[in-house]
Amino acid sequence: MNAVYENGKILLSADASIFNLAQTLECGQCFRWECAEDGAWHGVSSGKALRVRQTEQQIIFEGTTEEEFQTFWSDYFDLNTDYERIHKKLCERNAALRLAAVSASGLRILRQEPWETLCSFILSQNNNIPRIKKIIETLCSCFGEKLPGGEYSFPSAEVIAELSEEDLSPIKCGFRSKYLLDAAKKIAEGKFDLHAIEMMPTEEARKMLTMLRGVGPKVAECVLLYGFHRLEAFPVDVWMTRAMTGLFPGESPDSFGEYAGIAQQYIYYYSRLHPELFSGDAPETSTSKEIGALS
DNA sequence: GTCCAGGATCGGA
DNA sequence: TCCGATCATGGA
Fold first, then answer.
1. What is the pTM of this model?
2. Where does the HhH-GPD domain lie (predicted)?
3. For residue range A187-203, what is the model confidence (pLDDT) as tens digits?
């Protein structure tokens, strides 16, 4: 993708069918992006704040520099991966996956910071997205560092490791606080090397992550996919279970191949877009008939 | 009041 | 190995 620097902004030529901000930032992979009334998205990652918005032909990045864009945001938004090719490949699998894929063709898997991703998905268990976002926002404003623009960074493992359950009570994360503290202490004390996951085969990385308390199969898959960009990871939550039953009856999650994680995001996005189709007592609609006709 | 949410853990069958 | 209860919290 072609990016030019102009008047303090980065202008990236991109069609929404290839890079769609709303699809990317609202698909449940990240929790620190908010859309303002003017349509611009505001977010923070690795202690850097950004405003970004989408027009007909462009993605416009503001509040960053050319240097920071090239060395950080370009990687964060995974601009060097050819999603057009992957999307096409997944569309060829079958009609059900094509249905999901076309609903989210501009979705990209962000390359998020592993520690923040681990914490976020520990906090996600048995919880809903609006509340997860609220908890993380409060965690950052209470214990993160204030950035020049007034935003807060995500607190490091070392900072959280020094806290008690009582210290964490304002963030109202309930029973998850002990999991958060346990992970922070193990990592801060060097008993768990999160950085080492980067070099591990995915299967070994899975086992390693689930050794942390509060990290089961689902959370581990999310950390692998969103924090370590293992595109073969395939998280299954209650939404995915319903969507799999409806769209891919009898099929195993590991039948989706090397880009299973992206397929999973298409399916997840599609199921959230049409919750009525997978609720069990769905009324008969043209789309549900279409789904029924697939199998 | 009940049910549910990007689940994991625990004890008992 | 499998299954159900339980875990905080808040919105629907």
1. 0.96
2. 123-272
3. 999 999 999 999 999 99
